[in-house]
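Re-running Glycoside hydrolase family 3 C-terminal domain-containing protein to confirm reproducibility after the cluster update. Everything else is unchanged from the original entry.
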Amino acid sequence: MPFHDPELPLDQRVDDLLSRLTTGERIALLHQFTPAVERLGVAAFRTGQEALHGVAWMGPATVFPQAVGLGATWNDDLVRSIGEAVATEARAMRARDDRVGLNLWAPTMNLLRHPLWGRNEEGYSEDPRLTSAIAVAYTRGLRGDHPDHWRTAPVLKHWLAHNNETDRDTSSASVRPRVLHEYDLRAFRAAVEAGAVAGVMPAYNLVNGRPNHVSPHLREHLRTWTDQDLLVCSDAGAPSNLVDSEKYFDTHEEATAASLLAGVDSFTDHGTDASIITGRIQRALEPGLLTEADIDTAARRHLSVRFRLGEFDPGQGPYADPASHAFDTSGHQALAQEAAEQAVVLLKNDGLLPLPEGTRIAVVGLLADACKTDWYSGTLIRRSTPLDGLRERFGADSITFTEGVDRVRLKCAAGWLRVPDSDQTVPPQGPEIALDPALLTGRTDLAPLTCGPEPTEFALVDWGCGTWTLRAPDGRYLSVADDGFVRASADQPGGWVVQETFALVGHGDGYLIEHTGTGGYVSVAADGVKVADEPQVFTLEFLERGDEAVARAAAQADAVIVVAGNDPHINGRETEDRTTLDLPPHQDRLWRAARAANPRTALALVSAYPYAVADAHAQLPALLWTAHGGQAAGTALARVVAGDVSPAGRLPQTWYAADTDLPDLLDYDVIGSRQTYLYFDGTPLYPFGHGLGYSSFAYEDLVTAREGDLIRVAFTVTNTGPRAADEVAQLYTRAPRDPAAALALPHRQLMAHRRIHLAPGAARRLEFQLPLSELAFWDVRHDRWAVAPGAYEMLAGASSADIRIAATVDVDAAPIAARPVREAGLAAAGYDEQDATEIVDRTRTAGDAVRAVDGGTGELLFRDCDFGDGVCAVSVEASGEGAVDLISGSTATTVTVPATGGAYDYRLRTSGFTAAGVRDLRVRLRGPLRLARLAFTATAQPRETA
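Result of re-run:
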């Protein structure tokens, strides 16, 4: 058939296949699990294969560092190679298991503006340019180099402004136009324009009061950035959320139709049961909520991806060649180690590191003998913990290990809590067994805990935020199974709902043990220990505190490495934000005990996010950080500690000194609340781009030149130290400061970076070309990109705060004109500053309005409003009920808005208002009204129009 002919143009092949499908078959294409069309030889297909840092959920695979760790490498070339390896393994795994998909849901593009976000581990950086650079590299690797065929089809997550797990499917991010264009859209746009992206996935949250799954930005922005068909895949369950949790639509047929019209092409809902979604689409056709042309548009995008993957070619395209199906190769193993090494960030070093040969090292801490995976990891084929790596590098005789757990016994009225003796063995959990994280729950084939005269000693760990784990002597964690019994049965905490965590709730002289996963309490019954509504009171007997054991080990060593951090399955993960930047109290105790016993103590943080460790920075000679580094994490850390590798990872996000430096988790206005290195006015603990090494580098001879719409920047970096090492050269710009313009522009912003390797004494000349458009900001006065005129500083250095050399470039752009309010009016959301307001949806399909938070009083400030030679009236377009006060200098008026009948029922109310010339305007909103626009006229207007 013509659609099988690779010599025909892609559009013609898609048209041919589409024309052969019935309406029902076309609708069936729109669910994640698409059935086969056997009469045409079209195979079943599913969208969605997780591959954030390796192929996930489908069994053994090479596990690379977490995404935030890849961001910390600042190495585009390395990340592209990782993308190639991941895509190659996806193809190889699919060749033996057709459940493995080639539509990869990666990478995550959400900017790490707030470090308490639970999914911090999934993003690359708080900076849009660094995020897009790493994402472009990864997607190019995933896509492959063939001009027509794709190795895999990557989908970017999560569109748009998604940075909270708290109420993630019902909360709305208030994103003003400048933040939308300059921050959140910028990262996505660069990645899409690079041409290696097959689609995007909308996020669970709402933006400006409208769910992302019906976002007009999909049509107005995303699809204008490329001529290629983009496949928009919903997040799991999100289509149903539009009715069930968000209550944005009354019926699922309305919601499904609205999603499809907005641009969603593939519905991930109700698991493998496609009938529910396809039924909703079919029923939406009948009353005209959808047309068959709407179905065809989405079906075309689905088929376009499959054609590019080679599915309908003879032999299924070049990437289906078995010779290219490499899996777990020595090259992939070496790449995983290199990535883990390059991700290590040396935060502080007062000469302690590197440690020389023969050093007796005490390796202590809760993560010292751990190689943690996260929700989006594959199954480890091999693993290396920090303890493993240090023993291998320095020799087992030089290493002393103490985990630092608290050793306890628990007693209740029925006796001591104990793990029963059992002849049962736990099946192996090695690489030959594929575990789906969604199925990781407590086992039921082991006897539950009991209470009796003989106690069991448990390892108790406080992971912070009131979350604890208990571990039996055989290394198994206490877990609660579906039958409610408590067993020592889990290798590690895990699962969508973690069944291995508890809270110790003080009760008189003892504790109630609350099970986090169910909310029930540990209780003793005749048939064993279970979780029930009626709690049991337990007394806690400490046999040994972890800090005591750490102090003993530290005192006997030449140096101490405390390995601290998080377990990615416990707190700070998908579905759960953190509540503090502080290190968990248990781990804080451990480093303090180690330092008190031995001042030569280094703190190695292995975590998915930043911590506020100001005391550790002040008291310890060395600190390091690395994200969970995948299968080679321990080897990489040991090689850095030994000096085999000079660390050159750089922080991809700001590390703040305290929780008080942070805005509210749901405050998405990075400009107004001064978030990220771009706008933060305080002093961070460690700045964006920070990272030390074992060598030193000089920056010299910065030269700039303006050539048309390009700015050329060049400078020389020289290794002035004693070691061969990497350096990450960073180029920032600072816009001219014009107080008269009253523009809130970034303190500095990253424009380019390059990671280079230099031998001692070697130098390299680096050259960058910056399009003038990269200096632009979104001018809300005229709804367009604009470049402020003046002298721009070009800043080169080793971090956003360590600028070594600078030069200026004069940009002769047009001055930023005042707002033409007399001619164009004012969009309420186009303010310069605001207080106690939020942006909401103008209608369910498009537009923005503004309301006061909780229906109270809020205020908007519009600077430099040009009223020309005078206006005498203002018209307010608003819905709801309340009042709008306008104040400009000595002129003020109040426009009363009677109840309009509904949130989307906008009316015009007009009042006298006299103003002339250029002046600031304050607009105060009172009551539960929505303000969409203001219009100004030189003649009187009727009091109200519908």
